[in-house]
Amino acid sequence: MAPRANWKGFLKVAELTCPVALYTAASTSERIAFHTLNRATGHRVQRQFIDTDTGKPVEREDQVKGYEVGSGEYIVLEPEEVAAAVPESDKTLAVEAFIPYDELDHIYFDKPYYLTPSDKLGQEAFALIRDGLKARNVAALAQTVLFRRVRTLLIRAEDSGLIATTLNFDYEVRSAKDAFSDVPDMKIKGEMLDLAKHIIETKHGTFDPSEYKDRYEAALTELVKAKLEGKPIPARKPAKSEKVVDLMQALRESAGLAKKPAATKRAKTEPARRKAS
């Protein structure tokens, strides 16, 4: 069954336009999901909104948005007022600039989507944009209204299609300078740095996503399976306690250069000779 498009519109580069569809590239729908039950009856329970002062349930039609301006003080926003703030959408993914893909800091990356032509009439224009990006080795920056908000997307060519990644806004990305302000400015030199470089070189590899497993999801799957089959739940193995070691010694051990402890010599006991009678 073909996936359902999250969004349909038009990809526009200058005067060139083609109809496109946006599909979720990463999804959590395959994860194990739980429901909240009443332990006594086994029935599912429902959430209710409760007035914090009166303790009474508040019906849906009586619920409104509120922005807190002080302790217990709110500005009430009516549904039509909130709806009026949603930008109008013309369903156009308008390209504003082309940049080298590596020029953009990946910390701004939010969520990836697959971008494809939505009908046969747009396939040639789509292929032209895709191959143009490949030929110039660049990505496109574009904006559109996506899920009720104006979003900026980075679009790059991938195989026969395009990958569009929504980008975080500048105000959403926290300052790296603030995060690293307490990290001391230490310069590592000499043997310690050489050992670290050696370890990195020996551990060089490539990223294969199939090699990295979601251990939590796997454990939940085994737990559910055991409960269904009435099998005992395996006890978790205690975590190994890591001993504190000298940094230089740890580096040498990681690089396989640590001196091995000398083998303990065992005294060989020579069997007593019997005296000739």
From TrEMBL:
Annotated Pfam families: Ku (PF02735)
Biased composition (Basic and acidic residues): 267-277
Organism listed in the record: Phyllobacterium brassicacearum
Protein name from the UniProt record: Non-homologous end joining protein Ku
HAMAP family: Prokaryotic_Ku
One GO BP: double-strand break repair via nonhomologous end joining
Domain (Ku): residue spans on this chain: 55-185
The UniProt record lists the keyword DNA damage: yes
Biological function: With LigD forms a non-homologous end joining (NHEJ) DNA repair enzyme, which repairs dsDNA breaks with reduced fidelity. Binds linear dsDNA with 5'- and 3'- overhangs but not closed circular dsDNA nor ssDNA. Recruits and stimulates the ligase activity of LigD.
Segments for region (Disordered): 256-277
Matching InterPro entries: DNA_bd_Ku70/Ku80, Prok_Ku, SPOC-like_C_dom_sf
UniProt keyword terms in alphabetical order: DNA damage, DNA recombination, DNA repair, DNA-binding
SMART domains (UniProt xref): Ku78 (SM00559)
Subunit structure: Homodimer. Interacts with LigD.
Single GO MF annotation: double-stranded DNA binding
Family, similarity comment: Belongs to the prokaryotic Ku family.
